[in-house]
């Protein structure tokens, strides 16, 4: 399916960014995993049926119990786009367009409602951004070598 291909494009972008940013790219991917896990919890709470249960769709309808809200594909797309944007602005623009296309395709094929994909994009982007903020707060002192700590310079004794 086309949406799965877009997720593959995100994986290739993360692989490319891995060579430049190693730890930050890995943590960006970790933010995507946290966003996906969050969406699974929301699905269990909301339990909204998919539109393909009541009307024809272009794609095969997932099994009963695979709820519609929020769209997992959209969550992953939104989280990936946000993480990639934080690492590389040019690829971030490409990722944002891919995320919108992936979300739209879920509605076009009839397996999600518009509000499913909009909520998925927002949830993914917000969780990914939140993970990035938390990680930055934790890593910054180590990476900067405590640059904001007071520095005392003493002349060398001979």
Structural class designation = mainly alpha
Determine the number of helices (DSSP H or I, runs of at least 4 residues). Answer: 5
Strand tally, please?
0
Mean pLDDT: 82
Largest sheet: none
Estimated radius of gyration = 20 Å
Level of helix content?
over 70%
- The dominant shape is globular
Question: Could you state the order of secondary-structure elements as H and E?
Answer: HHHHH
The percentage of residues in β strands lies in under 5%
Number of structural units classed as domains:
1
In angstroms, what separates the terminal alpha carbons?
A: 73 Å
Oligomer state equals single chain
Subcellular location: Cell membrane
InterPro entries: PAP2/HPO, PAP2/HPO_sf
Organism: Lentzea guizhouensis
Domain Phosphatidic acid phosphatase type 2/haloperoxidase: 21-132
Structure description:
With 158 residues, this protein is mainly α. It has one domain. 70% of the residues lie in helices and 0% in strands. It contains five helices and no strands. GO terms for molecular function: hydrolase activity. Keywords: Cell membrane, Hydrolase, Membrane, Transmembrane, Transmembrane helix. It comes from Lentzea guizhouensis.
């Amino acid at each position: 399916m086309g949406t799965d291909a877009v997720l593959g494009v995100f994986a290739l972008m993360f692989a490319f960014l891995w060579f430049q940013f190693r730890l930050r790219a890995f943590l960006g991917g970790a933010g995507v995993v946290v966003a996906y896990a969050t969406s699974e919890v929301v699905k269990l709470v909301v339990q909204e049926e998919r539109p393909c249960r009541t009307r024809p769709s272009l794609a095969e309808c997932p099994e009963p119990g695979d709820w519609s809200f929020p769209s997992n594909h959209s969550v992953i797309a939104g989280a990936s786009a946000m993480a990639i944007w934080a690492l590389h602005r040019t690829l971030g623009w490409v990722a944002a367009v891919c995320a919108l296309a992936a979300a739209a395709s879920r509605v076009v094929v009839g397996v999600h409602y518009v509000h499913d994909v909009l909520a998925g994009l927002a949830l993914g982007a917000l969780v990914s951004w939140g993970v990035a903020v938390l990680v930055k707060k934790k890593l910054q002192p180590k990476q900067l070598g405590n640059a904001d700590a007071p520095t005392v310079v003493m002349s060398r004794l001979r």
